[in-house]
Amino acid sequence: MQLGNGDGNITTIYEVAELAGVSVATASRALNNTGYVSKEARSRVLEAARRLNYHINVNARSLTSGKTYTIALVLPDVTNPFFPAVARGVEDAASRKGYSVILCNTDGSPRKEADYLNMLRSRRIDGIVFTTSELPGARISSIIGDSSAVVLVDRDLDEPYDIVKTDNVKGGFLATSHLISLGHTRIAVISGPLSLTTGMERLQGYRDALGQAGIPFDESLVVEGDFRQEGGRAAMERLIEQCGGRPSAKLSAVFACNDLMAVGALTALEEHEIAVPSEVAIVGYDDIALASVTRPRLSTVAQPKYEMGVLAAEMLLRRMANPNLPRQQEVLQPMLVIRDSTLERRSRCG
Amino acid sequence: MQLGNGDGNITTIYEVAELAGVSVATASRALNNTGYVSKEARSRVLEAARRLNYHINVNARSLTSGKTYTIALVLPDVTNPFFPAVARGVEDAASRKGYSVILCNTDGSPRKEADYLNMLRSRRIDGIVFTTSELPGARISSIIGDSSAVVLVDRDLDEPYDIVKTDNVKGGFLATSHLISLGHTRIAVISGPLSLTTGMERLQGYRDALGQAGIPFDESLVVEGDFRQEGGRAAMERLIEQCGGRPSAKLSAVFACNDLMAVGALTALEEHEIAVPSEVAIVGYDDIALASVTRPRLSTVAQPKYEMGVLAAEMLLRRMANPNLPRQQEVLQPMLVIRDSTLERRSRCG
DNA sequence: CGAAGATATGTAACCGGCTACAGATAGCAA
DNA sequence: TTGCTATCTGTAGCCGGTTACATATCTTCG
Fold it and tell me: How far apart are CA A274 and CA A261, in angstroms?
């Protein structure tokens, strides 16, 4: 609406300098509060910038500074209910410090992961919060080189990258011990993919709890799932079939290594008209929003998802500020949330 | 691991040109497949780029091209279960065309929205997929000017921006008609914030359905909610209280204008031991993942969330390619999903 | 054979910032 | 007065690409 110059058109620092009657050097110094600038010059520059609706061109600046003030969040799928909270945490922490976040969904495909990493390198991203699936650490470094810092979330790689995770062994232990303390001894586990550290570790916690209670580990009670609802349902079907339709003495509780699979298991149980928790108790993992609305409401092991995101971003910024820092690792504590899908078990069974 | 040059360090086109024994102009042409380049020169350049692990600096390029190949997705909160699917759609469609997506959570705060828009302008973003809450269209244009294209999702502004939405009036109509067809006549509505077009339009659909069925509109059956779970619960409490604890003849069904509020209402009903759907039927809106795991499973009006994201991104790219296009508007159709929270109503009531 | 056009390449300017360096002025101590 | 420091400003080069323009060679056609 202004004359010709004002509104939409893009202004450069040259135009600001000209209007203010100074050189670009002075204009730059005034706008960035660096070096020596007289009061009058500064205020003339600021006024000119205001009048021209000047917005610095970040890309141009990054050409000299080498910093883009951009980080990336690379994860399998925002649509997986575990990730939005993490993403929000990352974005909050990043934007607080003036960083923007680029979102990348890889579906866990090493191919897509590699493609994104290449793209991110071309963008000279300052850092990456990465939840990879299968890409080996060495491959990551070979692509991004040391052009950007990396923090791994919820994954554990051999490479010397910083890490934010929760104690999955402990989480698995908590879930299983809870079931044991309720009197269960025949406890099945629907694990995550055993190629992922999360999958392995939660299973390890399960074994630890069993061992500590003196309950023998029974291979046939372990079914490998895929962290997805349909996989959880299929795994539960398999378990039910294995028991000849009625769990009864063969199996009285299930630890599903994430909530999505637990929900799948729940539907399978419902279809077979097996009562939860009276016939079979079930514990999930993650405490996604779903968990508190199922019937029965799902007992689960909560992870501090938002905090993980925040910590990951903050850790990344620290690493960016000082690439020579020793490797950082932050292990958060999972927490058992007891709802209705697990219940005290009286008398029956041994 | 290589000599000194290979791995992590950043290479410029100058080094590539030098290694290939050509000028930067030729190198640039070879890498971009523009202009004339001899076969030999091209292959020497490509080989040099490969050996040096050359990745173009996108920021430098955008300095001359004026394009950043970056768009932004500005929404209230990824943590709201409605948005991840939209986000995924936007990211998929964008990355398919080589664009990156910057994620911005505004919490619906006009202040944050304005801050983000300013930041995005500084980044010379090519376009924005925007789900604003309260920022007037004029304000948006005053900030971003015509420096980037804008597509509005699920919102309707006076400004001449492109729009992707679903037919909310129709959605409200579908939900209400469904209840009416089951025999309900006393239907309460827990609306969204009436300051939002989504809120208003769904309510309008409700009124239309009532009108068409000849059921008088009763002000006292309308409670304004906030699209959040706790708000839905509070609204339901209010309705129950209004009926003196037992809905009975005063109210036999509720249309909650999104699923989150429906879930909240469900918990309120459960606490009061009011059976769903036999005493009170309930329909939600959005069909988020939650809806299919509640007990009873929630009948709801589904929006094609992922498709909305895809369409928004594609529309944005079209607009970016041709700023003079007439205003585009895409209205998708909502779809009724009948589950267990609504049920045929026999005899009783009139 | 000469002119026109296609092909190939390099030089240099430019995109929009930042900053090293140099030059200018002023204040102050010796 | 001289010399030194602190303050202020501008010129120009650089960051890493793209591309207009000039130049040169090779075909091709009248």
Answer: 17
